[in-house]
Amino acid sequence: MSAAAAVAGAALFLWLGMVAAISFLEAPLKFRAPGVTLPIGLGIGRLVFRALNACEAVLAVVVVTALVLGSPPPVAAVATGLAVVALLAQVLAVRPRLTQRSDAVLAGGAEAEKRSRVHFVYLGLELVKVVGLLVAGIAALAG
């Protein structure tokens, strides 16, 4: 295994672990903790996901650089591309809408009473990203 493949695999699985821990464990559990109100939970969520997305961007650069410097199997490159596109969609298209939604909820306006499906879009993109990262990590280390 080349050094580039090892770096790519390590970064991919680190990225995968971070997404799994934050999105599928921390995010839903924080609202069940005693004393965590909706405003506090939304504030924590904004802070945590902003930090997660920044870490993801750094890891994406590391992975893409390692793949460019190495000779990855095509499936690793395609799956990494899928994960990166999902991240970009989240940061550029979905998170701004989630911020608007949380602002409305915190302000208590009429928008707060309506159900939003934006979180489901974000979650769907998280699932796409998880699959992409898993496949890319396995392919990078196997190839």
TrEMBL record:
Mark the transmembrane ranges: 6-27, 47-69, 75-94, 120-142
Q: Which keywords belong to this entry?
A: Membrane, Transmembrane, Transmembrane helix
Membrane is among the record's keywords: yes
Top-level taxon of the source organism: Bacteria
Q: What is the name listed in the Swiss-Prot or TrEMBL entry for this protein? A: Transmembrane protein
Which species is this record about? [Mycobacterium] wendilense
